């Protein structure tokens, strides 16, 4: 999988994002029954086709059935909305803010909880890329190109994600490579103040 991206100058961009939060308390038996019912649903079921599958609790489940507060944006929406980084989606996720500073340093904030030291290299919001913990704030915002999904999990998640997830978790999931076909896309944009950008991906089976 190869990716490339280029952007220059500064422009004004707006981004629309529908955020879904699911809050519920379910017993183990009820959850198991619901999962069996979803698996038994026919592939053509409209409800099944509109499902957003997340891994907020480290296994796949329907976003609307997750008993914790999660906001998710899938890869197609990231592409069509021209979202380049976490700062592009932060203003459209309730309870989530993302501040970028000089020197690649970034500060994510969930529900107003953040470090008192802006220059601290470690955040109380844990960021994971494909299950791998990103340890330093200056490595968090690596762009959203070729991602399948971005999940923002709100509230303490130390039991599943460790001590640095007191405020919540940012879960980045890469797009699965297509091993059968050559595919890809290119995207461009222009804006005010001589802003322009171009990015794209290409998938080549080896």
SSE order = EHHEEEHHEEEEEHEEE
Number of helices: 5
- How can the largest sheet be summarized? 5 strands, mixed
Overall structural class, as computed from helix and strand content, comes to alpha+beta
The CATH topology turns out to be Ferric Hydroxamate Uptake Protein, Chain A, domain 1
Spatial order of the strands forming the largest sheet? 4-9-10-7-8
Rg on CA atoms, Å: 18 Å
Helical content stands at 10-25%
- N/C terminus separation: 9 Å
CATH class designation: Mainly Beta
Q: Secondary-structure blueprint of this entry?
A:
Layout: E1 2-8, H1 28-40, H2 46-49, E2 53-54, E3 61-62, E4 69-74, H3 75-80, H4 86-90, E5 96-100, E6 106-110, E7 125-129, E8 132-134, E9 147-154, H5 158-161, E10 168-174, E11 183-190, E12 196-203
Parallel strand pairs: 7-10
Antiparallel strand pairs: 1-12, 2-3, 4-9, 5-6, 7-8, 9-10, 11-12
């Amino acid at each position: 999988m190869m990716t490339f991206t280029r952007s220059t100058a500064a422009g004004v961009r707006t981004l629309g994002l529908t955020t879904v939060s699911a809050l519920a308390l379910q017993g183990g038996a009820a959850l198991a029954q619901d999962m069996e019912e979803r698996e038994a649903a026919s592939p053509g079921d409209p409800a099944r086709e509109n499902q957003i599958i997340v891994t907020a609790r480290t296994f796949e489940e329907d976003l609307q059935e997750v008993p914790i507060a999660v906001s998710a944006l899938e890869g197609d929406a990231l592409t069509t909305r021209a979202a380049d980084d976490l700062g592009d989606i932060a203003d459209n996720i309730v309870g989530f803010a993302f501040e970028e500073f000089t020197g690649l340093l970034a500060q994510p904030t969930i529900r107003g909880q953040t470090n008192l030291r802006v220059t601290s290299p470690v955040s109380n919001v844990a960021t994971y890329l494909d299950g791998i913990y990103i340890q330093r704030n200056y490595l968090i915002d690596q762009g959203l190109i070729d991602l399948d999904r971005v999940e923002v999990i709100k509230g303490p998640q130390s039991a599943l994600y460790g001590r640095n997830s007191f405020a919540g978790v940012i879960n980045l999931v890469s797009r699965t490579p297509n091993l059968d076909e050559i595919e890809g896309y290119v995207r461009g944009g222009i804006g005010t103040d001589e802003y322009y950008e171009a990015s794209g991906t290409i998938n080549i089976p080896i």
